[in-house]
């Protein structure tokens, strides 16, 4: 019974995340259309439909952009550079090993100058994915720990978490831009407020609240995906303690992290802002409790190895 549940957890995630991304794309289309249509309603009520169509078109452009350029854009936001084949040889070798173990194309490798221990992955598909490590991680982790962290990031790619999180990160960015432009332009003027009445107030609330709701969805999704990526990494390496040791080093590391854009914080293996709350499901936390993650990984080391090497059912 336990083995069957684990099998479903591991090999249903790709299909589940593809469905979740499809639902997210639909929500982006509807939400963006509603926000811009609402703004058009405030300016010229009879032409609200033109704003709604414009918002729909903008959301379609966003989806196309994310599919083609999203991963590269997030790498640029992080300020990362290409990994040097000689200087970062150990990282690249471990990345090849884990990609082969996961059965996905080898991703591109990047490094960001940051003394703290951290890493993240991006990619709309495994074929255009990338993994980025901080210089602190490369310097402070031994090979087993580095392999555990790499397996965690490869797991995000394998499970299509990176597609889902890339969409959420850039959707949040779009809605924040729309809100900023709206508020800086004066928002709801007195004349518009009197003309549009309650409808205008609802639109104003939507414009302000939409990015907040998207951020909360982003954070909640990130917390859930971290637990699954830890479990998948343990399966790929057959050594859960490697990742557990790395997480202990991350928790104990006192190096000040580099400043990270809030939109990409959920992509990292550990919150760039510092240690997480003991509450694994704090509403505004980007990650679950590190202690809880370590405890789960330690317990996996006691699981029968036959369960860890179980293969997906033949279709």
Q: Which short descriptors sum up this protein?
A:
single chain; 315 residues; mainly alpha; 4-stranded mixed sheet; 11 helices; 66% helix; disordered N terminus
Write the layout of secondary structure elements.
Blueprint lengths: L1 H10 L1 H31 L4 H30 L3 E2 L6 H14 L5 E5 L6 E4 L7 E5 H6 L2 H16 L2 H24 L5 H48 L2 H13 L37 H11 L4 H4 L7
Parallel strand pairs: 2-4
Antiparallel strand pairs: 1-2, 3-4
Helix pairs in contact: 2-3, 2-7, 2-8, 3-7, 4-6, 6-8, 6-9, 7-8, 8-9, 8-10, 9-10
Structure description:
This protein is mainly alpha-helical and 315 residues long. It has one domain. The protein is 66% helix and 5% strand. It has a four-stranded mixed sheet with strand order 1-2-4-3, with helices on both faces. β3 (119-122) and β4 (130-134) form a beta hairpin. α2 (13-43) runs parallel beside α7 and α7 (161-184) runs antiparallel to α8. Mean pLDDT is 78; it is low at 1-10, 277-281 and 304-308.
How are the strands ordered across the major sheet?
1-2-4-3
End-to-end span in angstroms? 20 Å
Give a quick account of the main beta sheet: strands, pairing sense, barrel closure: 4 strands, mixed
Order of helices and strands: HHHEHEEEHHHHHHH
Q: Give the count of helical stretches.
A: 11
* Rounded radius of gyration (Å): 21 Å
The number of E-state strands comes to 4
Give the rounded overall mean pLDDT.
Answer: 78
Shape descriptor: elongated
Q: How many domains, as an integer?
A: 1
Structural class: mainly alpha
**Residue windows where pLDDT falls under 50 for at least 5 positions:** 1-10, 277-281, 304-308
Question: Considering DSSP H and I runs of 4 or more, what fraction of the residues is helical?
Answer: 55-70%
Estimate the strand proportion. 5-15%
């Amino acid at each position: 019974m336990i083995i069957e549940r684990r099998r479903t957890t591991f090999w249903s995630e790709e299909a589940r995340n593809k469905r979740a991304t499809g639902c997210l794309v639909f929500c982006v289309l509807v939400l963006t259309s509603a926000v811009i249509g609402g703004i058009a309603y405030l300016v010229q009520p009879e032409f609200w439909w033109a704003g709604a169509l414009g918002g729909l078109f903008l959301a379609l452009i966003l989806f196309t952009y994310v599919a083609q350029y999203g991963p590269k854009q997030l790498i640029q936001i992080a300020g990362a550079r290409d990994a040097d084949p000689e200087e970062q040889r150990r990282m690249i070798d471990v990345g090849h090993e884990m990609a082969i173990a996961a059965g996905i194309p080898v991703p591109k490798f990047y490094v960001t100058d940051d003394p703290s221990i951290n890493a993240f992955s991006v990619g709309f598909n495994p074929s255009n994915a990338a993994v980025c490590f901080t210089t602190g991680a490369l310097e402070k982790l031994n090979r087993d720990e580095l392999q555990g962290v790499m397996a965690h990031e490869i797991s995000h790619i394998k499970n299509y978490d990176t597609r889902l999180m890339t969409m959420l990160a850039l959707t949040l960015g779009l809605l924040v831009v729309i809100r900023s432009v709206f508020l800086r332009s004066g928002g709801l003027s007195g004349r518009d407020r009197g003309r549009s009445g309650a409808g205008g107030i609802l639109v104003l609330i939507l414009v302000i609240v939409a990015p907040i709701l998207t951020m909360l969805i982003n954070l909640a999704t990130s917390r859930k995906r971290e637990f699954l990526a830890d479990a998948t990494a343990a399966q790929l390496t057959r050594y859960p303690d490697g990742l557990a040791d790395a997480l202990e080093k991350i928790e104990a590391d006192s190096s000040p992290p580099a400043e990270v854009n809030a939109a990409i914080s959920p992509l990292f293996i550990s919150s760039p802002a510092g240690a997480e709350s003991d509450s694994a499901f704090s509403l505004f936390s980007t990650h679950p409790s590190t202690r809880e993650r370590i405890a789960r990984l330690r317990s996996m080391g006691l699981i029968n190895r036959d369960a860890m090497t179980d293969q997906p059912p033949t279709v």
